[in-house]
Structures are given as structure tokens and as C-alpha cells.
Design brief:
Strand order of the largest sheet of chain A: 12-24-23-22-13-20-21
Order of helices and strands of chain B: HHHHHHHEEHHHHHHHEEHHHHH
Number of helices of chain B: 19
Radius of gyration of chain A: 33 Å
Largest sheet of chain B: 2 strands, antiparallel
Number of helices of chain A: 23
Oligomer: heterodimer
Strand content of chain A: 15-25%
Largest interface: A-B, 77 and 64 residues
Helix content of chain B: 55-70%
Structural class of chain B: mainly alpha
Radius of gyration of chain B: 23 Å
Strand content of chain B: under 5%
Structural class of chain A: alpha+beta
Helix content of chain A: 40-55%
Largest sheet of chain A: 7 strands, mixed
Strand order of the largest sheet of chain B: 1-2
Shape of chain A: elongated
Chain lengths: ~725, ~550
């Protein structure tokens, strides 16, 4: 057990620092304007071809434009018994172009936000030089004697070994094979506190573009040039690596089906209406077609997908595939690591246990003094506990703090009078105290007993020792650091239960302790004394029953479980094996975020479904606008269907087309932000969304088209 | 008074169905899941070389359905062409080529569209050996396909969806045959004729000569209705007093049309292991049925014009013995199932009433729909509804614990694309292809104007949904109409069946996902509403423009 005050855990916290200059959830008109050039570029048929719905609109717009140009030479145009003017055709053509433009704009705006983030990431990718070890040999793991050559970081390949010293940029992704160093990873995580990276453990991975602040390390490069973590991040946030997710593909198929049906309807309408001498002109048919095919969702679909990934990036989570984001929405079981997720990663002092012959006050005072300059939550919790016991030592005495290092596994303080106080892992402290003379065996066994007891109860023992100026060292006692369950978790787990998601707490603790914490936190189940194999077996068992499992992990031994899980979130502090195995990486290394990831996955699906429903429901009103307008010249009785009392056939058709275009722009913010999502049961969610987007989708266009018609009626000639 | 009579009739049918759907639904479920064969079945399996214990993959099942049906078309075609040499042919000649083609497809596809006047075209042998046999087996095919889809939902990682030959045999021998025997007797008791007499010439008091036909009518009538076939023994179909003599038999006939389709949801619920799922489907069917019936009854009772008002309703083309209520109940039932039998001239319905008959078919006939076809039709729509709604609860959509992914959506989309495309294409080509337009306008349509258009639209809608009812008022026995309607009937029956069986295979291969509170519940009223809404919106969006040019243009003033 390492000392709990390892600064490597210092970055674990609930905050999500911002990186880059992209705005968070906000959406403003300026974004529309700056994305306009990209939107225009996307109008190219070669690009638009991938979106069949909008491609049809573009073809229709082009056709209508040609007809508008030709109309003066074609003579009088009668559509369904109503004559149409050149101006009408032009208006239709213009608004059809707007419809396509608004669609490409939505996508451009969504991509634009990612681009800003990519730009800030690119700055970390500046090429640097690296000291590559020539002929790295196992008998010289520190490469202290081996020769090095200086090469550009871009020339590094898989398996190269490089030496990095304090102040250097790490030239590429890799694993530390020798040494310990503190590393500034703020370029990627946005977190300014340095983290400790060391060889051999679960914290051996380093990321290219981050900076070594102290010590000297030897790193074996694990990524090919151009495929580093940062490269992948850039591709992800730019949307270049975006592939359509399974549900998106299915939805596209449904939209294509609906589009085909409406194309058939429109094609049939010509000859059928011709029988009654009510044949509509091509621009009118195109207008009807564009209004009927699901343009709203067709225009916003890719923006919704990009924005969903973007929402994850904004929370410092990188999803390696959109499939993973969707799977997150489908998860049935969450495997939550106790430490850091359910309890504060940093345990808190709960009691002071003096060794025989040591006064309470002596221990409390020493512990508090040793912790004064310890910035970690554990440290401050010791000071806080001491204060409640009436001890508030001040560091007014001239003193020098001794920070924690990965090698000593202790921290403490050297007072000006020469007294040294240390606290840390019992073994390390014993060794430190014992080095100045043998420790009394009775004290040692009592220390052992206390340490054992605390460990078994799931707590962390922290030994405290002093060394007088005269050289006499002694161990004072033990601080009991205990798990504290995070506040507010019980409610979140209840939310998850309402969503039908089971939570399982995974911990290395013994079953008794685990059960106590699980009950306090309100999780559904617990896997105690869990080994990585147990974890893997649990995931397999859940998946047997058709369930989808999500988990977090950081160690190399978590890698098989991460790979097996449907959603595996690797902590950025973890090993490269873990990061490779998972399908998401959390840059903040905050395991609680798994719950947010599930919410984002669900929100993504709901947004798609809601806008599809809205889009289809809209058609009802558009029919009532266009169909009577199309044929009322021949069949005046159809005026009865003009329930919106629209001004004229021309104004009715144009109003429907304008509404159809404008609704896309109106919904862009919703597509980017995602619809409001509150954890609740499927029934409640469906009821609410059906009411809002189904019924709302039927009613809204009646009002919208009527209002637009009032304006269109003012245009001369309508 | 009229309103109460209407309610009483509806309540009688509802009560009969409420009593019968349980035992029949359970019986259907047991029949199609049992491992035991009857002795007679074992004999037949030995003759045709089928191992009743071996299950088929969806591809093999599909090939069996198609092979059986295509052979059926050939047999019915040949028997008609050879009629002159067959016994009991009443001296009728061979049926012409085009008509034989149309009729063969019509009966094999369970459509029973009749481009001919039966009593003047087919003798007793063709009637019984060709047409009646198909009345049984085409219905059994529909039943088999529906059961295959239900098995797909019920299966867990299975490569097979049952054995078509076993399903066909059981549907015919254990379900349709016993039901027909029972209700033939009921109909005979009600006054429907059953004999092999030749045509009698009768001299009336006024001195005119009337030809009174005979025939095995009651036995034909029972399967015509139970199997949702609809092909009448006489041209007048169920308006003929020998087919449907009284208001009482009228009610029995309505009940027979609804019997199996309204019992299937219970069988479905039982097989998938959750009866509530079956009742949700049943509820959606019932809601559409009652709303549609009410609208048609309203249209016919309200009907415009002074004469109508004086008669108390639009009585033109209706039988006095049934009245408006007996007619709309029969008409709605016939067009919402795939029966297509009529007890009135649908051509004479008010424009809006006639539109309801068309709309009923345009829903894809899912409320309750044709035998088997109604169930698989509404289950495919449920898949579409679940996909839309499932996304809105934030999960990959699931129906009956099966994921609705790209493949399922693709098959469902193709399913609901097929029929409208065929109907609209057929109608548009009738008015769009130069040589055809003249034939349609000059020969086929008797009533020019929008009513004539409605008649053509009705014909293609009826063929495209394998209904078989006719608006009338047209001569469909022309080369174009026989060929076009024949093709539409064939494609509209078997192309969707391809997608349904493929869907069954795809669902069967999936594993079942667990049910949690995060799963969209598909047995609650909200889902019923969603399903009804999806069906209505997709129907309305597809057909609104053509309806506006037909019945709406005619009916709105």
C-alpha cells in the first residue's frame, strides 16, 4: 500500500477544467456567421451526396432555379388551376437553397466547435528533439552508460527508447521503463498540478507533448508517428474520424425509406392530377416534396452526432468511437470502483492511535505539524481533525517542509530546532525511524497490530514518527485514514435505478467493509476482494444475460476487463495498456464521470429520436397548407382543407417552404445542446418527449406557417 | 334509436369476439408450438417427404412459401384454362388467358379480386378444386408467415423459424377446416344455400323468366370469411340473398371475418411469453376499427342531399335488410381485414364513406387485418414505432427484448414502402402511359370525373393490399387492368412476405436483452397510442394527395 498522500491522486476531483477556446453549451449568431464559409463549401454535390435527404433538396433547388430562369420563355404557367408567377418560382428556388444552406450550416457550426479545440491541441504537437538510446540493453536499464543520439521527435518509431530529463518535452507516447518523474500534463488535461509517473506500476504511461518537471526517466515509445494520443484527439474533436454509429445508420435507413415514399407520392401526383386537368407545375411539386421529406432531421442528424462527441470532449472525455457513446446510453450495469468514485479518492483522517507510552497530545500535535504544509486532502483532513481535538499548531516556527516523493513515500517537516517529523506508509516510516537505532520490539508489534486492524477495516494507516535533534527517533502512533462516501451519490444511484441501470461497487476491501460502504452509498450490489479476474468474470456473466456493462479502470491488469466491457473508460493517469483497451479515456481521471457519460449517451439518442418525431409530425401541417393550395383552382371544395386560412395558393406553398427552412436554423441550438434530459423511467421519458416533440411537432407548424403567411401575403404578387 | 341499434350490433360482435378470442387464441398458440403431429398429418408428411421435426432457416422457409405459392398459381391457372373438359362445369368454356392469370394470382395471394362474374365464368369444379382450395391454403400461408415472425420474436439465438410445411398443414387441417365445418352449419341454419343444383329457370307471375342459380354456397361462404378471402360465389357477393340472407347472418359473417385476426394477438402474446403484449396489439387494432367504423357510419348517415335526408341516410346501393349500420359494419370489417367481401355497392357509398373504405385498406390492413397478414403487418409497424419512440427514451430501441437495429429498420422500411409504391405506381401508370390512358378512360371507367378516378384508385388499393373488394363501376376485365392488377397483387403479397420472413430470421438470431425500467414498455396505453399514431400518420402522409384528388375533391363542397 502506498501512502495515501500521493500527489498523483491530487488531480482527481469533480471539476472539469476547460481546454481551448470553444464555447461550452452556448450558441450564438456569431458562430453561424463564422461557419458560413464552411457551410458554402459543403454545398458541393460531391460532399452532400452522403446525405441523401439534403441531396434531393439541392437537386430540387437547382431544378427550380433553372425553371425560374426559363419561365419567362415558357409562357403562362398554370399549376392545379392557379397561375403561378415568375416571382413565385424565384422565391421558392431561393428558399430551397436556404434549406440546403441551413443544413450545411448546422454541420459546419457543430464542426467549428471541435476545430477550436483541435487548434489548441495542435500547439502541443510541436516537434521537439529526443535523445534516442542507441542499443538499449537490459543490463543498463537506466541507460546511464549507453550512447544517445539526438533526433527529431517525428522520426521516433515504435519501440525506440528515449531518455528525458527535467524540463524536456516528452517526444511521444510511451511507457516509463526506468525512473520516476513528476510530469506537467496540463497541455492535455488542463490540470496544472503535476502528476507523478513511475516505471513498473499503473502510472507508467506518459503522453507526448507533456513536460517532465523533475528527475530523469527512460521511456519506451509505444505509438507510431502520427498516431499518438494527441493525434487521435485532434482527429476526434475535428470530426474527421467520425463514423456513423449503429443507431445513426438505422435512422438514416428509416429516413431514406420515408424519402423514397414521398418521391413516389410526388411522381405519381403528376399523371394522376393530369387526369383532372389539375397537374401542378414542377416547382410546386418540388416544394411539396421538400416539405414532406424529413429535411429537419436530415439537416441536423450529423450535427447532433458531432455535438454529442463534443459534449464528451468538453467534459474531458475522449470517446474513441461514436459506437461507444451510443453503447453508454444502453448500459444496464455500471461497475464502479469504490475508490475515487463512491468514496473520496483521498481518505480522511478519522482518529489518532498513539503507541504505548506516547501521549495523545504528542501524536496529534506531531501529526498536525507534519501535515501543515501537505497540500493534499489527506493532509488537510489531518489538520482539520487535530483542530477539532483542540490542536492548532502554526508554522510560525521557522521550519522547512519535506514534500512527498515517490521514493521516500513520506512527507513531513523539519523544524528550525532540528526536530524532524515524518508521516507516511508504516513500513517507510519504520525504516526511517529504525535507521537511527533499533525500534523496541514491543512497539513494533503494537504498531503492526494497529496497522493490521486499520487495513482490515478498509482504512489506511499512516504512521507518524519524530527524530529529535539529538538523534533519538521514535514512532509516535498511527493516523487512521478512512473512506468517506461522497455526498449526493445515493440520489444519483437512485436516478440510475430509475433509468434501469444497476450499480455494482468493485473494491479490494473485505466483504464486511465493502458491504458497509455499499449500504451507505446505496449501490445495488458489491464485488468485494475483487481481483481483475473477478471483474472480468462479472462482466462476462452480466453480458451472458444480454446486458451491457460499463466500467472504469486504470491499471494494466484492468485492461482485459476494459476491453471486455461495452463501455470501458480508462483513466488518463493509467497505463497505456489500459488506455488502449478502453474505448474512452477520461483526461480528468475522475471515475464518477461514468454516470455523466451514460447521461450524454442517452441524451444523444433522445435528441435524434425527438427531432425525427418532430420532423415527421411537421408534415401534417404542411399537407394542410400545400394540398388545398395545389388543387383549389380546379376543385374549390378543397378550400375546406385550408384550415389555416392561408392568404392564397402561392403564399401557402411559399410559407410552408419557408417554415421548413427556418425550423432547421431554429433547431440548431437544440441539436448542439441536446434535448433536456432528466433521469427517469422509460415511460416518463417517452410520455414527456411524445407530448413535446410529437404533439408539439404537429401543432407548431400550424402556427409557424400561419405567421409566415401573414408576412408573405404582404409581398406584391402573392 | 339508430345510435342504439348501431351500438347493439357492435356490442354483439364485440361480445362474441371477447368470448371466442381466448380459447381460439390459446388454441392457435398451442397448435403452432406443439411438437405432436396428427396421424393424418404424419401420413401426408410421409407422402410429400417432409420431416416435421426439422426446422427451417428463414431462407428455406421463404423458399418454401414462394415455391408453394407459385405452384398454386400454375395449378389454378391451368384448371381455369382446362375448364371446358372438367366435370360440373355447367357447360362453361375455358376462362380467357388474361382473366385466368388475374384470377389465379388473385386467389393464391388471398386477395380474391374478381374481374369476372363468377356464376357466368367458373363452374363448380374450378370453384371447388381451384378457388376453394386456395381459399384454405392461401389463408394458411398468411397464418404461417405471421407465426414465423412471432417465433422470431420469441426465439433466443436461433438459426431457425419453424417448418413451413408443418405450419401450412396445421393451419389448414387444425384451424381453418374445423372452423369452416362448424360455421358452414351455422350459415346453413341461417338460410345460406348448399347444393349442387344447376341453374333453375323460373317464370315469375309477371311473366318474366328468372334464372335461379344453386351451388355449394354455405361451405364456400364460411371459408371465404374465416380465411379473409372474400371471393363471392355470386357476383353480388354477400349482398346476394343466397350468400347472406338476413341481418342475422350478416352479423355472423362480420364476426367470422374478425374471428381469427382478433384471436391472433392473443396467440402472439402467448408465444412470446407475455400476454400483455398481445393485448396491446389487440387494443391498437380495436381503436382503429372503432374509429373507422364510426366515421364511415357518420358519413353514410349524414350524406348530403335532400333525397338522402329523406331516406334517413345514403341508401343507394345498400340492401334494405341490412340498413346503413349493417352495411358500414360489414364494409368496414371487410376493408380493415383483407376479406374484400361486400354486402353493398361500395361505388354508391358517399364520397367520404367510400374514402373510409379506401383508407381502411391504405392503413395496410392491420386493424385487425387479413388472416396472419394483419398480425405481421402491425408487428412491422410496431417495429417502426418502437424505433422512433425507443430513441426518445435514450436507448437503442428494443421490441419484445430484441434490438431494432439497422437490419430490422431496413426490412421494416422496405415492407412499408412496397405496398404504397405499387398502388401509386399502378394508379399513376393507368393515367400516365399513353396507350393505357385511352383504355382506362374509354373502356374501364364508367363514371368520368373524380368518381372514376376514385374507382381506379380503389381497384389498385384493393389489389395492393390483397383485399379484393371492388368499388365497382369499372370494367376491370381489360388487358391492362388484368395484367396490372395481377402484377400488383402478386408483388404486394410476396415482396412484403420476403421482408417479413427475413425480419423473422434476423430477430430469431438475436439474443434477448434484459428488461429494466429503462426499457420502453410496449404493453401500456401510451404505446398503443403511439402505434396507432404511427400507422395513421404514415398512411395519411402517403395517400393524402391522391385522396385529395379523388374522394375529397368529390366530397368537399
Amino acid at each position: 500500500m502506498t501512502a495515501a498522500s500521493s500527489p498523483a491522486t491530487a488531480s482527481k476531483g469533480g471539476k472539469t477544467p476547460k481546454r481551448g477556446g470553444a464555447p461550452k453549451g452556448a450558441f450564438n449568431a456569431r458562430q453561424l456567421w463564422t461557419s458560413l464559409p464552411d457551410a458554402l463549401r459543403k454545398l458541393s454535390p460531391r460532399v452532400l451526396w452522403h446525405n441523401p435527404v439534403m441531396f434531393i433538396v439541392e437537386v430540387g433547388a437547382a431544378l427550380t432555379t433553372v425553371l425560374a430562369i426559363a419561365q419567362p420563355f415558357l409562357g403562362h404557367q398554370v399549376s392545379g388551376g392557379t397561375s403561378t408567377s415568375v416571382a413565385f418560382t424565384w422565391w421558392i428556388a431561393i428558399w430551397l437553397w436556404f434549406t440546403v444552406l441551413f443544413a450545411t450550416l448546422a454541420e459546419a457550426v457543430a464542426e467549428g466547435r471541435g476545430k477550436a479545440q483541435a487548434a489548441s491541441l495542435r500547439t502541443t504537437r510541436t516537434t521537439t528533439s529526443a535523445d534516442r538510446v542507441v542499443d538499449y540493453a537490459d543490463d543498463d536499464p537506466g541507460a546511464l552508460h549507453a550512447a544517445t543520439t539526438r533526433i527529431a521527435s517525428a522520426d521516433l518509431t515504435l519501440g525506440d527508447v528515449v531518455v528525458i530529463t527535467a524540463g524536456d518535452l516528452i517526444p511521444g507516447d510511451g511507457d516509463i521503463i526506468w525512473g520516476v518523474a513528476s510530469v506537467d500534463e496540463s497541455a492535455i488535461t488542463g490540470e496544472s498540478a503535476p502528476v507523478v509517473r513511475e516505471s513498473g506500476g499503473d502510472r507508467s504511461a506518459v503522453t507526448g507533448g507533456t513536460r517532465v518537471l523533475s528527475d530523469r526517466i527512460v521511456v519506451r515509445i509505444t505509438s507510431k508517428p502520427g498516431e499518438t494520443f494527441v493525434d487521435r484527439m485532434i482527429r476526434l474533436v475535428e470530426g474527421a474520424a467520425r463514423q456513423k454509429t449503429p443507431n445513426e445508420i438505422a435512422l438514416n435507413i428509416l429516413l431514406a425509406g420515408l424519402t423514397i415514399i414521398f418521391v413516389v407520392v410526388i411522381l405519381a401526383l403528376g399523371p394522376v392530377a393530369g387526369y383532372a386537368d389539375a397537374a401542378p407545375t414542377v416547382p410546386v411539386l418540388v416544394a411539396l416534396l421538400v416539405c414532406l421529406i424529413p429535411t429537419t432531421i436530415g439537416a441536423l442528424l450529423s450535427a447532433i452526432g458531432i455535438a454529442g462527441m463534443d459534449r464528451l470532449v468538453q467534459r474531458n472525455v475522449l470517446a474513441m468511437s461514436g459506437r461507444a457513446v451510443e453503447a453508454a446510453g444502453d448500459v444496464n450495469t455500471l461497475l464502479l470502483d469504490k475508490t475515487g468514485t463512491i468514496t473520496y479518492g483521498n481518505r480522511q483522517a478519522s482518529e489518532f492511535l498513539p503507541l504505548p507510552g506516547v501521549g495523545d497530545d504528542a501524536l496529534v500535535n506531531a501529526a498536525a505539524l507534519a501535515s501543515l504544509s501537505d497540500p493534499t486532502p489527506e493532509g488537510s483532513s489531518v489538520v482539520a481533525l487535530a483542530k477539532t481535538l483542540g490542536h492548532s499548531p502554526s508554522s510560525s516556527v521557522a521550519s522547512e517542509s519535506v514534500p512527498f516523493t515517490a521514493q521516500t513515500r513520506m512527507s513531513g517537516i523539519d523544524l528550525s530546532d532540528g526536530t524532524q517529523i515524518r508521516k507516511g506508509a508504516a513500513s517507510a516510516v519504520s525504516a526511517w525511524a529504525g535507521s537511527e537505532g533499533a525500534i523496541d520490539s514491543a512497539v513494533a508489534s503494537e504498531l503492526d497490530r494497529i496497522v493490521q486492524r486499520i487495513s482490515q477495516s478498509g482504512g489506511t494507516p499512516l504512521a507518524v514518527a519524530t527524530r529529535e535533534p539529538n538523534g533519538g527517533a521514535r514512532i509516535l502512533g498511527v493516523i487512521h485514514l478512512k473512506d468517506v462516501v461522497k455526498t449526493g451519490l445515493a440520489e444519483r444511484f437512485a436516478d440510475l435505478r430509475r433509468m434501469g441501470i444497476r450499480t455494482v461497487m468493485v473494491t479490494g476491501d473485505n466483504p464486511l467493509t465493502a458491504k458497509a460502504i455499499a449500504d451507505e452509498a446505496g449501490v445495488d450490489d458489491v464485488l468485494a476482494e475483487a481481483t481483475p479476474e473477478d471483474k472480468l468474470a462479472l462482466i462476462r456473466r452480466e453480458q451472458e444475460g444480454g446486458k451491457l456493462v460499463a466500467m472504469t479502470g486504470d491499471g494494466t491488469n484492468d485492461a482485459p476487463a476494459l476491453a471486455q466491457a461495452d463501455v470501458g473508460v480508462a483513466m488518463n493517469t493509467g497505463t497505456s495498456a489500459a488506455k488502449e483497451a478502453g474505448n474512452m479515456v477520461d483526461l480528468d481521471s475522475d471515475p464518477t464521470k461514468l454516470i455523466d457519460i451514460v447521461a450524454i449517451g442517452k441524451q444523444l439518442l433522445i435528441t435524434r429520436g425527438a427531432l425525427t418525431t418532430f420532423s415527421i409530425a411537421n408534415d401534417v401541417a404542411k399537407y394542410f397548407a400545400i394540398i388545398p393550395a395545389m388543387f383549389v383552382g380546379v376543385f374549390p371544395g378543397l378550400q375546406a382543407l385550408n384550415i389555416m386560412q392561408l392568404h392564397s395558393p402561392s403564399s401557402a406553398i411559399l410559407s410552408a417552404v419557408i417554415f421548413n427552412a427556418i425550423i432547421i436554423v431554429i433547431l440548431i441550438p437544440l441539436a448542439l445542446r441536446g434535448v433536456r434530459y432528466r433521469p427517469s423511467s422509460a415511460s416518463q421519458l417517452l410520455g414527456r418527449n411524445l407530448l413535446l416533440y410529437g404533439l408539439g411537432g404537429i401543432i407548431a407548424p400550424f402556427i409557424g406557417i400561419k405567421l409566415i403567411d401573414l408576412l408573405v401575403a404582404l409581398i406584391p404578387g402573392f | 334509436m339508430e345510435f342504439w341499434l348501431f351500438l347493439a350490433q357492435l356490442a354483439t360482435v364485440a361480445l362474441l369476439l371477447a368470448i371466442c378470442h381466448r380459447p381460439l387464441g390459446d388454441y392457435l398458440a398451442i397448435t403452432f408450438t406443439s411438437r405432436r403431429d396428427l396421424r393424418v398429418e404424419r401420413g401426408i408428411y410421409r407422402i410429400i417427404g417432409v420431416d416435421s421435426k426439422s426446422e427451417q432457416s428463414w431462407q428455406v422457409y421463404l423458399r418454401s412459401v414462394l415455391a408453394f405459392s407459385i405452384v398454386g398459381v400454375l395449378i389454378v391457372y391451368l384448371l381455369q384454362r382446362l375448364q371446358a373438359w372438367l366435370p360440373y362445369s355447367l357447360g362453361l368454356p375455358a376462362v380467357p388467358q388474361g382473366l385466368s392469370f388475374n384470377t389465379a394470382i388473385s386467389f393464391v395471394t388471398n386477395t380474391n379480386w374478381q374481374s369476372y362474374s363468377p356464376e357466368a365464368t367458373v363452374g363448380y369444379t374450378v370453384q371447388m378444386a381451384a378457388l376453394t382450395v386456395q381459399n384454405f391454403v392461401s389463408a394458411a400461408v398468411g397464418l404461417a408467415v405471421a407465426i414465423a415472425l412471432v417465433r422470431g420474436f420469441a426465439a433466443h439465438r436461433s438459426g431457425t423459424i419453424g417448418n413451413f410445411w408443418v405450419d401450412l398443414m396445421r393451419g389448414t387441417l387444425r384451424v381453418l377446416l374445423p372452423l369452416s365445418v362448424i360455421f358452414t352449419l351455422v350459415l346453413i341454419a341461417g338460410g345460406v344455400i348448399e347444393n349442387l343444383n344447376a341453374v333453375h329457370a323460373v317464370h315469375t307471375i309477371a311473366g318474366a323468366t328468372q334464372n335461379i342459380p344453386g351451388g355449394p354456397v354455405a361451405s364456400q361462404e364460411a371459408i371465404k370469411l374465416i380465411g379473409n378471402n372474400g371471393g363471392g360465389f355470386f357476383n353480388a357477393n354477400s349482398a346476394h340473398p343466397f350468400e347472406n340472407p338476413t341481418a342475422w347472418t350478416n352479423l355472423v359473417e362480420v364476426f367470422l371475418m374478425l374471428l381469427v385476426p382478433f384471436s391472433l394477438p392473443r396467440a402472439f402474446g402467448r408465444i412470446v411469453g407475455d400476454r400483455r403484449q398481445g393485448y396491446a396489439i389487440l387494443a391498437a387494432m380495436a381503436v382503429i376499427f372503432v374509429v373507422s367504423l364510426s366515421l364511415m357510419t357518420w358519413a353514410e348517415s349524414a350524406g348530403g342531399g335532400a333525397a338522402t335526408q329523406a331516406a334517413g341516410g345514403a341508401m343507394e346501393g345498400k340492401e334494405q335488410r341490412f340498413g346503413i349500420l349493417g352495411t358500414t359494419l360489414f364494409g368496414t370489417t371487410s376493408t380493415l381485414t383483407s376479406t374484400g367481401a361486400v354486402n353493398a355497392a361500395h361505388d354508391s357509398l358517399t364520397p367520404l364513406g367510400g374514402m373510409m373504405a379506401m383508407l381502411n385498406m391504405m392503413t395496410g390492413e392491420v386493424a385487425p387485418g387479413g388472416i396472419g397478414a394483419g398480425l405481421y403487418g402491425i408487428l412491422v409497424m410496431a417495429v417502426v414505432a418502437v424505433f422512433l419512440a425507443g430513441l426518445m427514451v435514450g436507448r437503442t430501441p428494443e421490441y419484445l427484448r430484441k434490438h431494432i437495429g439497422a437490419r430490422e429498420v431496413k426490412l421494416a422500411s422496405l415492407y412499408f414502402l412496397t405496398t404504397p409504391t405499387l398502388i401509386l405506381a399502378g394508379t399513376a401508370l393507368s393515367f400516365g402511359v399513353p396507350g393505357v390512358v385511352q383504355s382506362v378512360e374509354k373502356t374501364t371507367i364508367f363514371n368520368p370525373g373524380q368518381h372514376g378516378f376514385s374507382e381506379i384508385l380503389y381497384a389498385f388499393t384493393s389489389a395492393g393490399n390483397n383485399n379484393g373488394s371492388a368499388f365497382g363501376g369499372i370494367s376491370a376485365n381489360t388487358p391492362w387492368m388484368n395484367a396490372a392488377l395481377g402484377c400488383v397483387m402478386f408483388l404486394a403479397r410476396f415482396v412484403p412476405i420476403v421482408f417479413v420472413i427475413a425480419l423473422a430470421g434476423s430477430l430469431a438470431a438475436q439474443e434477448k436483452s434484459p428488461v429494466t425500467t429503462g426499457t420502453l414498455p410496449t404493453h401500456r396505453p401510451m404505446f398503443v397510442g403511439l402505434l396507432v399514431g404511427t400507422i395513421l400518420i404514415i398512411t395519411a402522409l402517403t395517400y393524402f394527395p391522391v385522396l385529395a384528388l379523388g374522394p375529397l375533391a368529390e366530397g368537399l363542397h
